[in-house]
């Protein structure tokens, strides 16, 4: 299998505090990799390293290597904007921009200078269809995205991400603010999307990780305890701490 | 019991203080309304401040034909197609004012006899006051001079004129006492000051909130801007005339000017614009910025396309507060636009804003309380409305983004 | 997919340009305070330097002088500084208790709707322009002063007087003081109040003893701000000050002269030294505000420490 990210000896500091310790893992193309662990274990922080969203946090320092396509994403050779066009991100709480549904999805391509109306429309419609939202909103593409339900908003955010045709989609607990029905729709969507994209998903919900991921990494107190095929992690983990966590002894 | 009594007194004191506050605002309003409200009318808003005198002769070969019908106010001279009424001006002068001039009236077909006017066509218009008239008496056929005093009243004037054989020349004045020029100056000042302080203020607010890390230099920048708030406006005026005057000279100004006043006001407005923009930027959720950046937008694209549109209410608040400040400002303008009331202001001429006009007419030999109060009322109404709108926007701002 | 190298480069350059543009605007905004002080200093100091075109003025006699007469070219601002201090501090003294009580009323005592209405009254008062206060002062406050004076058998200059200035300034700083006090009172920790109530104090005792004490630092900050406004208030003051030529003025019914009224009055028909010296007066005004702010902030620190 082809590797998408190779992470070697990654350490991350917020000022004095170390948030990630010696992380080593590989993320494979066209797979769903789930990151699990108790809150504050560093899984979201790790996710945000992959598209350098931690650059925005004052006092944050990253040491170590994250290699994508042979380039260290933190090196000067990697343009951060370019990286983020290839690595999309979906956030915990749906965050549609206060503009129309159409403009939300056209936002990314427009930022890259795409002005052709026909092309934009094609992209918008295709992205909406990909997230199975098109039929629900096709009559109100010009209405504000703020009027959609929470689940619809999150699917819109995924569509917005897809519109950039990224290689990777990072998802940071994308269903934690949603009801069960919306959650299952998003899960179906993730399974659908992995044909075309590499997906890394942070989740609080172990059943979700078991249902949708191919690989699962368990994080604890800033360390990556272990990573393996999902069925292995959930049936016979090699580390006692992993077993304790997935059997519900803490978390 | 004594504890209750003591508490009652203390509470009572707070009530009394509040009542005093209400009384102050109330008495200001009552005073202004009693003194100024009766002077507010369309004439005040639409006419010049200065009285202009015209000397005009009636075209000798003009023959007045149709005796126009008239049913409006005043005493109507059917023979000459003109109507008058008696008024008392804002300056407490008794005058006879024109209320109607028939299109075919000879008073509409005159030429100016003032030297230098080259006999330009001129006509008597509604609102003018009559000063004196030369006419040919129909009984004696001789030219008679009718002074302002001997006109006596509008009724008398009409009866005298109806006896005349022809009108030779008239001397009349515009009424004056209007604030049109100052309204125009105020609009210029608002326009100039906002045009300059808005981009600079918004830019500075963006830097402070979106870019500035917590460094010493940045906190120095913030301190500098905060200190501007405490500078008295008269000091801004002194600064304007020394520092900014050369700038206006580059645009062709030869004296203090509305442009200079506008530039000075722009600096006064900066802290207001910056703080209200920044307050709105604070409310914009970080998740929207993250969302935009994660889609590969650059920081400036994120600011222009996502952050600023969300902060529009705060910017609007800044604009409104700025307009209120410009309308009310006087001390900073005394040194920069001059206190000369100008009926036809241009950007490079001197002139007074409404507030400065008040200062100008109050610091003269004979303060005109009625006119000053009338202008004050207009200013207060505008300022209060702005206040109300800002409050409504603030409520909406608190509700947006949950 | 949409990104080509050229566009990325262009976007990056644009991004940088905007960054520096915003930085430039922030620096420009902040630099105005330096420009103001620097240029008024340069212009204000000029008459005291040798070689000044209208004849050098003696700095010491300017600062300590007790006569300010344009017709005799005698310019002394010592008494004007004292006048300014007297006016402002007495105005603060008059306004302070009223403002604090009103703030307490709005924040703690009044029923919700009445408090909100009262807050609007304060906001409206705060938005009344200086020149409108000026008309009110010369129309109403002077009449009150005339009436008071005539009851005591004193004649005044049409009501223009130190007393009129004090009342006017007290009214003008009232909204500033009140709204700062409201903010300070509302910021008091509710647990502190609960603790006082739990100890058996009444609501009123708590308000006056605990809340006001806890808020005193913020209230004092309001007083400093109000005093700064009183020092710098120009148009309204010069409408009722009367512009006495010598002083200081201590008699409440006598006319007075403040730094700001000196800068403003008689500007229309003036040139030369009389025009330039106004910048020196402006410089003195800046110094007075700066020094008094510094002293009061030191006092505030002391008060803040001894809770």
CATH class of one domain in chain A: Alpha Beta
* Secondary-structure-derived class of chain A: alpha/beta
Under CATH, the homologous superfamily of one domain in chain A reads P-loop containing nucleotide triphosphate hydrolases
Largest sheet of chain C: 2 strands, antiparallel
The proportion of residues forming helix of chain C, as a percent range, comes to over 70%
- Taking all Cα atoms into account, the compactness measure Rg of chain A is 18 Å
Q: Helical region count of chain A?
A: 10
Counting DSSP E segments of at least 2 residues, the number of strands of chain C comes to 2
Arrangement of strands in the largest sheet of chain C:
1-2
Number of helices of chain C: 12
Computed CA radius of gyration of chain C, to the nearest angstrom: 25 Å
Q: What is the annotated CATH architecture of the largest domain in chain C?
A: Orthogonal Bundle
* Element order of chain C: H for helix, E for strand: HHEEHHHHHHHHHH
The number of distinct β-strands of chain A equals 10
Q: Low-confidence parts of chain A, pLDDT < 50 over ≥5 residues? A: none
The gist of it:
The complex is a heterotrimer of chains A (251), B (402) and C (307). Chain A is of the alpha/beta class and 251 residues long.
Give a verbal description of the structure:
The complex is a heterotrimer of chains A (251), B (402) and C (307). Chain A has a domain at 3-95 and 166-246: P-loop containing nucleotide triphosphate hydrolases (Rossmann fold, 3-Layer(aba) Sandwich), CATH 3.40.50.300. Chain A is 36% helix and 27% strand. Chain A is built from ten helices and ten strands. Chain A has helices spanning 43-50, 80-86, 101-111, 117-130, 134-137, 150-162, 180-193, 206-212, 230-235, 240-246, and strands spanning 3-14, 17-28, 32-36, 60-68, 71-72, 87-90, 168-172, 198-202, 215-220, 223-229. In chain A, helix 3 crosses helix 4 (117-130). With 402 residues, chain B is an alpha+beta fold. Helices cover 56% and strands 13% of the residues of chain B. In chain B, helix 8 runs antiparallel to helix 11 (312-328). Chain C folds into two domains: 5-48; 79-305, MetI-like (MetI-like fold, Orthogonal Bundle). Chain C has helices at 5-45, 59-64, 78-109, 112-127, 130-151, 162-186, 190-198, 203-214, 216-232, 235-240, 259-264, 272-305, and strands spanning 68-69, 74-75. In chain C, strand 1 (68-69) and strand 2 form a beta hairpin. In chain C, helix 4 crosses helix 6. The model of chain C has no long low-confidence stretch (mean pLDDT 91). Chains in contact: A-B, A-C, B-C. The interface between B and C is large, with 87 and 87 residues.
